[in-house]
């Protein structure tokens, strides 16, 4: 088991959004979070990833044997949690290649205290770029600036392939993506056997392509018991 959530209660301001959530995610799973809009899915994945907008009132989040309930988003990321959000920000002035280099260097230093040589980084980048058929010229553009929705999803996949997280949380990765990109996302999810996926989707064709190993349904901020 890679993730265990125990009696989690979460609020945003004065509004309680999640009520006594209990959830386990098995290592290597492709775990679907289902439910109607407003059921609490995005709140739950945001709370797991450490979104500071949400207040954890009670309960625990255990990730890879670490109690991360009170850890910030940066520490959770370095421990191996990846978040592919629905709406990713543009970062003018920061190129994609610089962003990836700093991200991977931080992960390497956190994991074993060593530096990431530029040659090794560029080799990793080339392998991932070729796998996704991403043009080289994209790498010198600023993060997400001027990219379409589908192109942003491909850049998310590039970051995913390079960081190789223990847990990848994907909040509607199929949103804004055409059929080709949706198929590419599903293929990457199948290929990354050492990464556990917790994902949200409302599109049956994408869900079918991913073939989730587990499904948890939320309604009104609670887990539906079947």
Trace the largest sheet across and list its strands. 6-9-10-3-11-12
Stretches where pLDDT falls below 50 for ≥5 residues?
none
Enter the CATH topology name. Answer: Rossmann fold
Name of the CATH first level: Alpha Beta
CATH superfamily: P-loop containing nucleotide triphosphate hydrolases
Q: How much helix is in the residues?
A: 25-40%
Rough outline: globular
**Architecture (CATH level 2) name:** 3-Layer(aba) Sandwich
Largest sheet: 6 strands, mixed
Write the element-wise H/E pattern from the N-terminal end onward: EEEHEEHEEHHEHEHEHEE
The number of helical runs is 7
Number of strands: 12
> How many domains is the backbone divided into?
1
What do the pLDDT scores average to? Answer: 94
What is the radius of gyration computed over CA atoms, rounded to a whole number of angstroms?
A: 17 Å
Distance between the termini: 21 Å
Please state the structural category. Answer: alpha/beta
What amount of the residues lies in strands?
A: 25-35%
